Amino acid sequence: MFKISISFSPLRHNLQDSQLRDTTLAPEKTSIGRRRFLGAFAATAAVGLPLSGSAAVSRLPTPPTDTSPSALAQDESFWSEVATFYDRTTGVVNLEHGYWGKMAHPVQDAYIDATRMVNAQNSFYARKQFETDEKESVRRVARALGVYDDEIVLTRNATEAIHNLIRQYRGLEAGDAVLSADIDYPHFKTAMQWLEGARGARSVELIIPPRAGQSQILALYRDTFDNNPDIKLMLLMHVSNQHGLVLPVARIAKEARKRGIDVICDTAQSWGLLDYQVPSLQVDWAGFNLHKWIGSPVGVGALYMRRGSLEKVAPYPGESDPEDTLVSTRVHVGTSNFAAVLAVPHALNFHEAIGAANKEARLRYLRQLWTTEAESMSHIELLGGRDEESWSGMGSFRLAGRRSAEDVTALQQRLEHEFGVFTVIRKGLASGYCVRITPQVFTTPDNMAQLVDALKRLA
Ligand SMILES: Cc1ncc(COP(=O)(O)O)c(C=O)c1O
Fold first, then answer.
1. Which burial class, exposed, middle or buried, applies to 375 when counting CB atoms under 10 A from its CB (0-12, 13-18, 19+)?
2. Which atom of ligand 1 has the smallest separation from the CA of 99?
3. Contact 243, 435 (CB under 8 A)
4. 357-370 residue pLDDT tens
5. Given the CA of residue 157, which atom of ligand 1 is nearest to it?
6. Residue-range definition of the domain harbouring residue 375
7. Is residue 318 located within the same domain as residue 389?
8. pLDDT tens for each residue of 37-52
């Protein structure tokens, strides 16, 4: 067992990726060869946690450098090694990974170690050191998202980030309109509708067809803006939790900006599922979580507010920010999960070791394995993208013409009990209910084949 005797060592704040990599131990020869090497990594070098036991030396996946993400997406030996970093759901093929992301072993180990340390050191740690350590987690999040540290504040989830933006938005006057879409996250739609009673705003809902492509979606938003010139604030989904539809956020945001509409972007489901950085979205405000596709412990989210954009969103009640420069004042979390925040750099290390582009390509590939087959089944209605740009790793379906809660509940139950495939029902689309399918990086093509077989037998 690897033990470090010190009780706590401060973070190293200025480590670059290359320095993190310098701590990599010599490659082990595996049966699959050197390029499959899973680099051993001293976790203490990343975040300075007092480690003992399993987290003391963490290994990370090392994808080959000479293979494109699309080629690597089909390299089963690499992905089966990635899968060794995870414990699997037993008793069923779990295709419901849109709820939260499972921690990989190095992240779980770091989290358990951090929990022990925080519990042992208690207020002595929390009062003296946590603020510094949290700054390191913020720095890593900001770096991964391609933004400045002072544009990020950690929250407990995406809901906290986005609800604060909606509630604290101060750009509305009675008679203004606010926009959401049927594909938006249901609790955010209701929060936008709440602005009707709270601020006298008119709530407008845009309906997006069950399958849609990029230019079609853009045209729908443009028409809605033109037909509702009183819209002042809108919710804009990046990847829909309903069916994994990817929206052309930057293009819609550009149209919104031209008309003076403020945009709250819901990036809860997109970061880590897709490979991107915030500047490419061209939005001022976004709400993330790290417990879905970044694989942190449950209980970590982030609010992004572009420098210079804070004036229209009031500080959290009781907080003060006369110059409107402090994003940290837009949230007040109180006592929260210290250990989860400490595990963030570990989650990002693991995510970045696989590579965001590789992960996106693999998840798309797994989704294609079932959607391409489903396209040709007349008894299945597929929901999501019309073109590959509009698809992500997630997708949804239902039996043709069977859109009610009862129909889709029965479908989900049959998949689980007759075919051993666990999924989830999504409600909220104007077109009706659907079953969502969400693979993860450890999902195998055999798992997807089991789903395809079930789909065929549902005829
Ligand atoms: C699109 C979308 N937005 C927001 C949320 C809420 O995220 P959280 O649970 O981190 O608050 C979810 C969660 O499923 C989601 O899928």
1. exposed
2. 14
3. no
4. 999 999 999 999 99
5. 10
6. 358-457
7. no
8. 333 333 333 344 444 4
